[in-house]
Amino acid sequence: MSDTTADISALHDFQVDAHVLLTRAQECLSHLDLIGHDTDACDCLLNTLGTLAERAHLQAQTQIADFCRQLCHVLEPQQCRARLHAALPKLKACLSLLAWQLELIDPHTGQLNLDPQEQLALLEELEQTFRQLHAEPAKATATPAAPAPALGA
């Protein structure tokens, strides 16, 4: 068996595994959609993205590996994990982009030559969503409550 055949076979195996992992990540999002603060679903999502990052790295799919790692970095802080359900539309968009990237890998060369701007834009939108969510409780506690009307007045 030639090295090229082995490389193509390894790429195919990676793509199959990556699709399985993406399906699992999407199931985590569906679970979070039904049960908002489920820590098991959050853990599963992060573990799945971490595994996908490792496997992509081993297959020299740096764009996919880096995007998965960056997603994990954004989602890892506890305050973000507690609010993943509020960021579901952005997370779904990230997983859709990953699915498209898997489809766009050249089956003969294993190359994925894409501009990372869409990845960066989605990550920024996700981070912005979490910044807004973190600011909301601060606004609520920073605004003093109006005094209660006096009884009998």
UniProtKB/TrEMBL annotation:
What GO annotations for molecular function exist for this entry? kinase activity
- Keywords recorded for this protein, A-Z: Kinase, Transferase
Q: Which superkingdom heads the taxonomic lineage of this protein's source?
A: Bacteria
Name it.
Histidine kinase
Q: What is the organism field in this record?
A: Pseudomonas qingdaonensis
Q: What is the lineage of its organism?
A: Bacteria, Pseudomonadati, Pseudomonadota, Gammaproteobacteria, Pseudomonadales
